[in-house]
Amino acid sequence: MWGCFRQWVEVDMVSSENRSTVNISLFGFLRLYMDEQGICPVFEAVRIAQRALQEEEVTKAYMAPAGDELFNLGMQRLVLGDDSSPLADGRVSSIQTPGGCGALRIGAEIIHAAAPHARVWVSDPTWPVHIPLVGSVGLGFETYRYYEPHSHGVDFAGMVDDLKNAGSGDVVLLHGCCHNPCGADLSLSQWGVIADMAEQQGFLPFIDIAYQGLGYGLDEDAAGLRLLVSRLPEVIVAASCSKNLGLYRERTGAAIFVCSDSASASAALSQAKSAARRVYSMPPAHGALLAGRVLSDEHLGLISFFTVGEDEVRAWTITRKTPADDAAGVIHTDMKKGFIRAEVVAYKDLMASGTYAEARKQGTVRLEGKTYEVQDGDIMEIRFNV
Q: Residue 274 belongs to a domain with what CATH number?
């Protein structure tokens, strides 16, 4: 899934000479990622799922109030991780929503039902729709410092100083990754400080993760969120599939509730279904049915690796656990037949180093044999004899 996205968005981020592939179009507060032809493409994994759904779908009846079960379970694993302790303990519930906006609204409904006088702390700046959307249920707001324009980073000292005033019962709205609009994200250690403050002060983190996979990878972008979830008894998450699955028009999102115990998780879901009935009645089906298939079907678990030449960067789609020689064969059958070894550097390591030469100096470029399982985002130079 992440690999499909990378094919058309991140390829030219590796190349300093050609950045024309990525086009971010703005329609008011909406952002669409387009290719160089001005098209917002349909991912190959989504196409495969769509063809299968067309063949197998037998009804257009309403969805269940909580939405598609495969989708909900898939989103829980995607956001929280397969090894999440709260998932294993049964402390998590979720509801399918009309996009990330629907997830934010349902999260706000749950907060207001439990604590109508809670203050919601939002970053300065934040996504312009956050305040009217979350505030539509009657919640009040405070702001905390976030962006530091001179460094183009996070004013973390200011953020911490302001959030010292967030008390028990308050809510702190956080951007899970790829902060909108400033793009500056917390480091993992800074997420740890926020977890400490939440534990000590008793505020509830409400995390909006609309761009998972668009920063450094699906797992990397959720690392801070997962840290909070591993340490705190309660967290609410609003997640969206608009960007990382390209399902903008399908309005596909989820509100995820991490609770102190399974009974509380069930109660949160019950309240969420009641709120959904008041707000939008039933969730839309198509996008969630597609996403659920992609998230649950190992055969749709596509990834990408990259090859870099003097004039171009190419992305190649393979399935997970593909060995290096088979990956080479995707480029050309001769490369598989004559495979010797592959020089590999991880995408995030290359981005951290800045250049391929610097990555070599730092020791993050390595040699791998034919049995090496290619990882999503690997940048490879394949050595072979014909």
A: 3.40.640.10
3-state class (DSSP) for residue 130: helix
Query: CA-to-CA distance for 250 and 267, rounded, in angstroms?
Result: 28
Of 296, 314, 331, the position where a domain reaches its end is 296
Q: Is the peptide bond before 181 cis (omega within 30 degrees of 0)?
A: yes
Whether 191 is a known active-site residue: answer no
**Residue 285 appears among annotated catalytic residues:** no
Q: Whole-angstrom Cα distance, residue 58 to residue 299?
A: 23
Which residue(s) pair with 51 in the sheet? none
Q: Which of 280, 296, 312 is the last residue of a domain?
A: 296
Q: Which of 208, 325, 376, 378 is catalytic?
A: 208
Of the chain, the percentage scoring pLDDT greater than 90 comes to 71
Facing residues of 24 across strands?
Answer: 33
pTM (2 d.p.): 0.75
Q: What percent of the chain has pLDDT over 70?
A: 90
One of 118, 210, 291, 346 is an active-site residue; which one? 210
SS3 for 42-58, per residue? CCHHHHHHHHHHHHHCC
Residue 337 lies inside a defined structural domain of this protein: yes
330 lies in the same domain as 377: yes
pLDDT in tens, 13-45: 333 333 334 444 444 345 666 777 788 888 888
270 & 129 share domain: yes
Could you say which of 121, 127, 191, 316 is catalytic?
127
Name every residue whose Cβ is closer than 8 Å to that of residue 16 and which is 6 or more positions away in sequence: none
Active site residue 272: no
What domain range includes position 379? 2-41+301-384
